[in-house]
Amino acid sequence: MAAATMAGCNYLDIVPDNTVELSNLFETKEKAYNALADCYSYMPDIEGVHQSMALAGDEWIGRLDAGVAGVRSYTRGSKLMRDWNNSTDPILGFWSGAGGAKDLYEGIRICNIFLNGLGDIPNMQEDERIDWMSQVKVLKAYYHFYLLRLYGPIIIADKNYEPYDDIDDIRQERKPVEECFQYILGLIDDVLYDENGNEKEDLYNSRSEVFLGQIDRVVAKALKAKILLYRASPFFNGNSEFYSNFKNAAGEHYFPQTYDKEKWKEALDATEIAIEAAEAQGKKLYEFSGQVKFWDQDDWEKSEIMKYCYNNRFSINDPWNSEVVWGYSNIYYTSSSSIAAASNLRGDPDNPNNAAFSFQWLGTSFRMSELYYTRNGVPVDEDKTFDYDHRLDITTIPDDTYHLGYMQPGEKTVKLYLNREPRFYAWIAVDRCIWRDYDTRVYPMMRSGEWPGGHRRQEVRAPRVARYFMAACGQLPLPSDPPVGPLPDVCRVLQRVLRPRTAGIRQDQRRSCACRPSAPDRGVVERCVYSQDCGQAPDSGRSA
DSSP labels for 414-478? Predict the structure, then answer.
């Protein structure tokens, strides 16, 4: 009997092969950095058209045709707002990672593992270790805040539990929203301030270029201000209208029932602190200072609004600009399932600058086109100079300096699209406007029987263009559909492909090529010679 017992103990004490202990995750600085990256990997997807909560509102309208109208996994945000959600099969369920969402509680557990496991590591400075710990604390606060915004009262996952812990400890209950807010704000304050309220330097004040997107003190202060703004808002501040009967098992209200105006003062103070910190770091409202696109150069000085439109458009397109407080670099805008692909116009199929994917089925709702202000800076239904009652009447687009470069003069459109603020023309594409895409101007047509970018069928030209280039360099035979004309006309295609673009080449650079046939019977050209002012070989990626 004893022998059997001893054998059983020896067997149970054997550790299976390939078992990774948590301590192994922090053996080296490289492994610890990978663990830090894992903590960031649970950031909610903001660019995926089928995973983004950004589409769970009335700002967008997507496909409603029979092919996808009944598919729950297609544009989940819109399905969520159409009341398709249920408890057994949640849509964008960030509580458990269901329905295309990230599992934020799993992300919080990963953060807890990091905070408990990051000790002394060889070749790692103490200030760097403390900075990493501080980043993860703020991430942990952000994930809790994200859940709070979606679900109201949530479970506070301050620490991880083991399977052998007491069942009463493991079974956590949801906490009232004010307690949740206090916990979240406490995590951030623990990073920013000591017990006497003096600012600490545990978290770095800024990030070098290679670490952009990681949390710094400015990000933490801005996030705190945003959290306090939500806490002061009527939804979370004295919401007795909707949640007077929403209580826990002990009869306590989950939502505060009494309005507290002092919460607005706390939000204001935090916002002023965040703005001051951001300005000290060089943050400011974006102003375009780059090279004006060549198709806009003639209109730049004449237009009344083009400079403002550039400021608004490039504040989004210009990476890591002065207006970005917390940037997010994990955006796959070249993917077929990105918001960028769903909203891209399908342009001229002969334009090699076309995006790899352009579906043109996601756009702003008509309501959004009415919410933008007039050129006088007031709502369309309040501007006395705006013909609101006849806003849907057809009119001729004037040939004036205000609409220059943004509306097609002489064309017909509705009055609603004229005399609007610069943000409208920078961000909204409407019928008979002038849009910028694929490194060129696009002239959208949006009436019955027309296609916004002028083309119905999706065109994916990048592989074909690449074959033209390789053929011109003598590496491949020409594609089966070569350009019309003699063989050297391939060079004309190449000149279009290699014209200046925004990624990796200056706007003032130009490429020229001279191609000579070497084996006409095989459809091959010998080589392509680039002018000296190009400065580099052709880039392989498409323009940004």
Answer: EGGGSSB-HHHHHH---TTB-EEETTEEE----STT--TTS-SS----HHHHHHHHHHHTTSSPP
DSSP string, 512-536: ---EEEEEGGGTEEEEEPPPGGG-S
Residue owning tokens 């649970």? 42
Distance CA 260, CA 244 (A): 16
pTM for the full predicted model: 0.79
Which phi-psi region, left, alpha or beta, contains residue 439 (left: φ > 0; alpha: ψ -120 to 50)? left
Q: Is 141 in contact with 221 (CB distance < 8 Å)?
A: no
3-state secondary structure of 277: helix
Q: Please list, in sequence order, all residues whose beta carbon lies within 8 angstroms of the beta carbon of residue 265, skipping any fewer than 6 positions away.
A: none
Nearest to 510 by CA among 487, 483, 538: 538
Q: Please tell me the distance from the alpha carbon of residue 35 to that of residue 23, in angstroms, as a whole number.
A: 11
| Element of type H or E holding 394 | strand 394-396
Give the model confidence (pLDDT) of 368-388 as tens digits: 999 999 999 999 999 999 999
State which amino acid sits at residue 64: L
Whose structure tokens read 């000290």? 280
Q: Where are the alpha helices (DSSP H) in 171-261?
A: 177-192, 217-232, 240-243
Both tokens assigned to 400: 């004036």
Cα angle 15, 18, 20; round to 5: 80
d(CA 38, CA 198) in angstroms, rounded, equals 31
d(CA 494, CA 64): 40
SS (HEC) of 332-349 = CCCCCCEHHHHHCCCCCC
* Nearest one of 177, 187, 125 to 155, comparing CA atoms: 177
Q: Which of 518, 517, 511 is nearest to 532 (CA)?
A: 511
Treating both helix axes as pointing N-terminal to C-terminal, what angle do 126-151 and 104-117 enclose, rounded to 10 degrees?
A: 160
Q: Which two tokens stand for residue 26?
A: 């922090």
Q: Do residues 176 and 197 lie in contact, with contact meaning Cβ atoms separated by under 8 Å?
A: no
Query: Taking a C-beta distance cutoff of 8 angstroms, is the pair 102, 112 a contact?
Result: no
For residue 259 the two structure tokens come to: 């309005």
Strand partners of residue 515: 528
Residue pLDDT, tens place only, 94-147: 999 999 999 999 999 999 999 999 988 888 999 999 999 999 999 999 999 999
